[in-house]
Hints:
Structural class: mainly alpha
Order of helices and strands: HHHH
Largest sheet: none
Number of strands: 0
Radius of gyration: 15 Å
Helix content: over 70%
Distance between the termini: 35 Å
Amino acid sequence: MKTDNAVLDKSKFFAIRIVKLNRYLVERKKERVLSKQLLRSGTSIGANVREAVCAQSKNDFIHKMSIALKESSESEYWLELLFEGGYLSEKQFNDIYDDCREVSKLLMAIVRTSKAKKSL
Length: 120
């Protein structure tokens, strides 16, 4: 279900892609260790964004979005390892990595803006 919130939509779309990538890596490439780590971090991004939407305070919102940003950075790392380890083609890697970077940039901007507004 699409919302009017870009970071909610993009993080959920990314999580769905991660779930499908995990299935591919486990079934086709027989890779379970790195893909499990990616599954956890990649789906955690959207979960933390969803929690931030219902935050109890501005500090709670910033905290949840910061966790989502950390999970996004971790997901980038696992994607890099999967690519450099030969489990993803360059095209597969670039496509999903670009999505991850887009979510990271959105989260970075949200955290930065929220912190700046809080200090006013």
